[in-house]
Amino acid sequence: MADCSPWQPPRPCEAYRAEWKLCRSARHFLHHYYVHGERPACEQWRRDLASCRDWEERRSAEAQRSLCESERARVQAARKHILVWALRQSPPADWHLPLPQEKDE
Question: Which of 30, 34, 46, 100 is most buried, taking the most CB atoms under 10 A from its CB?
Fold first, then answer.
């Protein structure tokens, strides 16, 4: 990995800081807990921010490796979530008709 001479982190360090700050916000906590039933894991964003800053200050090979692995894992996680619903090409033929009434009314 260290063979690329002008290597740059995949994102600017400010992006990692913004993601970490968002992850720790009350709004994100409530939304994540409501959707997933668990607390959001913000530790990876903090590690990425520390690695990015370490790369900027010392050009650490360990920081470079850590950032590359983290971004690779994020891309893989995003790829495994496929669409659940089949997208329509056109609306149903009877979309304009009134809805059927409830039977117990």
Answer: 46
Which residue type, as a one-letter code, is found at position 81? H
Structure tokens at 34: 């409501």
> Of 80, 61, 81, 50, whose CA–CA distance to 2 is shortest?
61
CB-based contacts of 65, cutoff 8 Å, min separation 6: 1
Task: Scan for tokens 């470079």, then name that residue.
Answer: 64
The Cα–Cα gap between 79 and 55 comes to 27
47: left (phi over 0), alpha (psi -120 to 50) or beta: alpha
Would you say the pTM of this structure is higher than 0.70?
A: no
